Amino acid sequence: EVRNLATALVKEWRGMYRAETGQGSTSSGPNPAILSRRCKTLSMDLEDCAYGKHQRTKHYIEVVNCLCGLLRLDESACKGLLDGNLLPKELVGRAGDHIIRREEKMNPKLKRIKV
User: Fold this and answer.
1) Is 54 in contact with 96 (CB distance < 8 Å)?
2) Can you give the pTM of this predicted structure?
3) How far apart are CA 67 and CA 74, in angstroms?
4) How does pLDDT run across 19-50, given as a tens digit for each residue?
5) 20 to 30 A Cα–Cα from 79, which one of 38, 58, 90, 92?
């Protein structure tokens, strides 16, 4: 009886693991639970990179807004992040560069100071 209960428990754990990792699934798309976790992790990584590079509130807010715009408009950036081909640090750098170019266009006399 104990052996049967242990076997049933192991089968249940295997099923839960496969459902969570998407293994053995016949569906063509990614598992929603895995995708949700991946998105949460990426959002924390993006926020951490943005804050690590731009700690002043004004700059941080500008970078976050620019990141949101990039993610809305650039489907390849979203796919790259989810696939692991684009690092959050690279996307934050792209957003920072975009903000600098925009500021330089608005005020051509503004010179960029490297920190």
Assistant:
1) yes
2) 0.64
3) 10
4) 766 665 555 566 787 788 888 999 999 999 99
5) 58
